[in-house]
């Protein structure tokens, strides 16, 4: 366990993706089974201990440590698991048997709530402080070390010398501690067979297309459909089981019992998850309400009805359709849907066009909510996981822009730790600037150096890592859309804001107003 | 306490300039220039410039000369460890505090009462300075920088191993370690050498003077090189020591893909380390941790404990619960940094 704890600790502090990958790969290479398999389960969020609660941790500490001292320490540290791990007094006797992660998982899985404290106490005595921290974070279900399941699988794939998609495809047919997976990756056995299990098929993704590049494409080769502003999902029903997967392969069915109930049998579908009211796409904010809730109540289900707008069909009964062309799959999808229409599923319509100019006009004229732009798919494209070059393009509508004033700057992380690279910008509300967003991309290295220098020379106030600057620089900010938000003082929140241009030339009094931004609300 | 022995608060007290011993007519680590200053150690918040007369260990005086030059004081009087000097009716001794080179506790005897001012101290061995010696006393005035039971510093060898392990895992990255110029820098160097690291270590310009001084005072620290004028690529896979603020600011842009480490007792608290942009926290401290603070209080067998600069309330609470007469001594001007 101490070795796994050291890994979590190092991952927490390592900002770079490559650094995190290296740390995980070193761990997989150096640890034995089933220890590393359980570690993989922890990193991918597959370990849940329902019977361990923060209140038990607090009670264990209060029995060992003076409550006044515990209270002051908690005030200083600000995190219960960390406070307890640091303050836990050394055992009177020599430390006992140091448990492995495997042992901890196996015993906790079988333990009742009443038994959990009895298990934790000797472990806390035997582990070092990092081990205690990792144990408490693990059992209370809040690792928060900046590693996604996808990143852990990427590390595993690179280490094993296989494509990540091959792991994604079988992932949901496997269970911790993943012995067959490690056997395969180390060349002892063929890939684990997942048979009739409802596993995830990594999605086929599109490349962005710039308006200028479209001239090189022949409109007769492509089919077009709307790009809806929800989240891409995959519905899998196989062997009597149903799954709803996010684009990254996470199982999100629990949050959408309404959809799962309405799901058909023996089919794999690709589509966009949306909140739909009478066929109208609701705002992304509405969808967020559903995504944020792991177990929705009936009111939420009623007020925010979820649906999937279908793009593609990958499997029907026993037949794998990925080897068919998109035109043929589209045909199969329409035929399948005609036989089995459902209220919470509908078809994303194809957009008919002859020329690119006509299509561009359709795109820019589309005022229906929820349309982000268009998807262009080659009629002859097979379904290939990943982001192949050429067959699919996303052709987004031009971004919205707003001239704002730089108000605060904060230093970045990792490679950018010496640069003020995170910018908060505001719009005018009367004579007052109101912060309307934050951006940390869209500029060149040269512009970053210049902005950094400017921030240092024009600081009026410092708040820890944040500098307030003289209002002077106009930032032209690009964003996809703007929504109402109760969490922001301005009452609005932008989606995907980035710096479009730095208007060194423009007087800051002439920047845009909050009213202008509000008129862009969707 | 013997009959008629004066209570400590009648002859030692706080003034705007800091702690003052009336019968000896001197201040200890004064904040403002005074006629006579006794200095515990060379850190800038304890040893300030501009006093008329300064009394300290030879090590501390050498450090003050190196830092302040002529401004170190009108006259600088060295006093070796354990030698006694009479100042008025007060007998004064300096005893090793184990904090940094030259650091001392101040032991004051006056009419049968003994007061010990700990200055900053630690109890664990440090190859760059003399080890702390506990002295029995009636009143112990202790620091409390890490006066919370969450502060338990791990063995320093373990922390140095973390640094060397990271260097082997990321051999192309420059490892830049934030260290204070006095004490921490030299201790990290000594610990690296003890762990068998023989490569030259690069030093930020602000660390060179005191490191040379340590060497000249007989503390071997192995090969060191200045950063100035070194080609960027030469720092790959090297260890660079720099003042903490420089590790994440513009100075660090000369380093190739730097991995920022920091050697400090504060690194024990993860969010604190993360907030500072530290990628490799090393819990190496020159201050006593909670266990060292509480053990020392028991060892010196004083009836009375005054707690100063740090988290006084927890240590005062602890000492009171154990039956000592304990109180917080409000002294301003000391920094939390180490």
| Oligomer classification | heterodimer
State the end-to-end CA separation of chain A: 50 Å
> How many separate helices of chain A?
19
Number of separate structural domains of chain B = 2
Q: How would you name the CATH homologous superfamily of the largest domain in chain B?
A: Ribonuclease Z/Hydroxyacylglutathione hydrolase-like
Q: Supply the CATH class of the largest domain in chain B.
A: Alpha Beta
Give an overview of the whole structure:
The complex is a heterodimer of chains A (522) and B (338). Chain A folds into three domains: 2-139, Orthogonal Bundle (DNA ligase i, domain 1), CATH 1.10.3260; 207-396, D-amino Acid Aminotransferase, Chain A, domain 1; 400-519, Nucleic acid-binding proteins (OB fold (Dihydrolipoamide Acetyltransferase, E2P)), CATH 2.40.50.140. In chain A, 36% of the residues lie in helices and 24% in strands. The mean pLDDT of chain A is 91. With 522 residues, chain A is an alpha+beta fold. In chain A, the strands form four sheets. In chain A, strands 3, 4, 5, 6, 7, 8 and 9 form a seven-stranded mixed beta sheet that branches. Chain B has two domains: 8-150 and 287-328, Metallo-beta-lactamase, Chain A, CATH 3.60.15.10; 156-282, Rossmann fold, CATH 3.40.50. Chain B has a seven-stranded mixed beta sheet with strand order 7-8-9-10-11-18-19, covered by helices on one side. In chain B, strands 1-2-3-4-5-6 form a six-stranded mixed beta sheet. A six-stranded parallel beta sheet of chain B has the order 14-13-15-12-16-17. In chain B, helix 4 links the parallel strand 13 and strand 14 (224-226). The mean pLDDT of chain B is 94. Classes of the chains: A alpha+beta (522), B alpha/beta (338).
């Amino acid at each position: 366990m101490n070795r796994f704890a050291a890994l979590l600790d190092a991952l927490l502090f390592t900002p770079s993706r490559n650094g995190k990958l290296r740390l995980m790969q070193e761990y997989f290479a150096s640890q034995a089974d089933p220890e590393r398999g359980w570690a993989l389960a922890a990193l991918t969020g597959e370990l849940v201990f329902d019977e361990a609660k923060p209140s038990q941790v607090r009670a264990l500490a209060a029995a060992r440590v003076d409550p006044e001292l515990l209270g002051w320490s908690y005030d200083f540290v600000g995190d219960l698991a960390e406070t307890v791990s640091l303050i836990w007094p050394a055992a009177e006797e020599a430390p006992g048997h140091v448990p492995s992660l495997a042992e901890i998982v196996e015993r906790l899985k079988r333990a009742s709530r009443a038994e959990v404290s009895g298990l934790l106490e000797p472990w806390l005595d035997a582990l070092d402080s990092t081990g205690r921290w990792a144990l408490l974070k693990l059992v209370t279900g809040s690792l928060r070390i900046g590693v996604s399941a996808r990143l852990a699988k990427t590390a595993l794939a690179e280490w094993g010398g296989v494509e990540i998609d091959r792991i994604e495809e079988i992932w949901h047919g496997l269970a911790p501690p993943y012995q067959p997976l490690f056997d395969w990756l180390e060349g002892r056995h063929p890939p684990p067979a997942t048979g009739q299990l409802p596993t995830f098929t990594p999605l086929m993704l599109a490349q962005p297309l710039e308006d200028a590049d479209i001239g090189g494409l022949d409109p007769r080769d492509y089919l077009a459909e709307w790009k809806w502003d929800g989240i891409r999902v995959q519905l899998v029903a196989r062997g009597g089981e149903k799954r709803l997967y996010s684009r990254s392969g996470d199982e999100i069915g629990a949050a959408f019992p309404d959809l799962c109930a309405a799901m058909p049998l023996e089919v794999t579908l690709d589509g966009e998850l949306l909140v739909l009211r009478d066929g109208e796409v609701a705002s992304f904010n509405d969808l967020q309400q559903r995504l944020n809730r792991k177990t929705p109540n009936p009111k939420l289900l009623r007020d925010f009805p979820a649906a999937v707008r279908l793009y593609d069909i990958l499997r029907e009964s026993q037949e794998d359709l990925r080897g068919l062309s998109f035109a043929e799959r589209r045909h199969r999808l329409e035929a399948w849907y005609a036989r089995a229409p459902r209220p919470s599923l509908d078809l994303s319509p194809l957009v008919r066009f002859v020329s690119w100019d006509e299509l561009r006009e359709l795109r820019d004229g589309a005022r229906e909510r929820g349309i982000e732009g268009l998807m262009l798919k080659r009629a002859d494209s097979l379904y290939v996981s990943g982001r192949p070059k050429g067959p699919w393009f996303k052709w987004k509508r031009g971004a919205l822009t707003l001239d704002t004033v730089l108000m605060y700057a904060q230093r970045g992380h990792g490679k950018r730790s010496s640069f003020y690279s995170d910018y908060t910008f505001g719009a005018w509300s009367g004579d007052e600037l109101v912060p309307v967003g934050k951006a940390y991309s869209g500029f060149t290295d040269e512009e970053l150096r210049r902005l950094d220098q400017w921030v240092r020379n024009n600081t009026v106030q410092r708040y820890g890592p944040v500098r307030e600057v003289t209002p002077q620089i106009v930032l032209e900010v690009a964003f996809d859309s703007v929504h109402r938000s109760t969490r922001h003082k301005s009452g609005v929140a932008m989606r995907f804001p980035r710096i479009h241009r730095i208007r060194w030339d423009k007087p800051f009094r002439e920047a845009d107003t909050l009213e202008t931004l509000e008129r862009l609300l969707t | 306490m013997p009959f008629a022995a004066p209570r400590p608060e009648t002859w030692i007290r706080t003034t705007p300039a800091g702690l003052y011993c009336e019968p000896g007519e001197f201040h200890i680590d004064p904040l403002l220039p005074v006629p006579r200053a006794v200095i515990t150690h060379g850190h800038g918040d304890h040893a300030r410039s501009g006093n008329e007369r300064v009394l300290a260990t030879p090590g501390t005086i050498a450090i003050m000369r190196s830092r302040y030059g002529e401004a170190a004081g009108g006259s600088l009087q060295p006093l070796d460890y354990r030698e006694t000097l009479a100042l008025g009716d007060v007998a004064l001794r300096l005893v090793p505090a184990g904090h940094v080179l030259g650091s001392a506790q101040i032991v004051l005897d006056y009419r049968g009462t003994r007061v010990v001012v700990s200055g900053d101290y630690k109890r664990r061995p440090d190859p760059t300075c003399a080890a702390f010696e506990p002295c029995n006393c009636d009143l112990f005035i202790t620091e409390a920088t890490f006066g919370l039971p969450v502060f338990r510093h791990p063995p320093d060898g373990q922390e140095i191993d973390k640094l060397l392990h990271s260097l082997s895992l990321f051999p192309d990255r420059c490892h830049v370690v934030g260290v204070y110029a006095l004490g921490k820098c030299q201790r990290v160097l000594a610990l690296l050498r003890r762990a068998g690291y023989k490569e030259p270590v690069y030093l930020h310009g602000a660390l060179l003077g005191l490191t040379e001084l340590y060497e000249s005072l007989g503390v071997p620290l192995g090969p060191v090189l200045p950063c100035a004028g070194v080609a960027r690529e030469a720092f790959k896979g090297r260890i660079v020591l720099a003042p903490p603020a420089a590790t994440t600011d513009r100075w660090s842009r000369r380093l190739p893909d730097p991995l920022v480490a920091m050697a400090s007792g504060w690194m024990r608290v993860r969010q604190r380390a993360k907030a500072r942009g530290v990628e490799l926290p090393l819990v190496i401290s020159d201050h006593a941790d909670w266990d060292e603070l509480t053990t020392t209080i028991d060892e010196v067998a004083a009836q009375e404990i005054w707690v100063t600069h740090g988290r006084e309330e927890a240590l005062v609470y602890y000492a009171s619960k154990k039956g000592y007469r304990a109180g917080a001594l409000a002294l301003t001007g000391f920094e939390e940094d180490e």
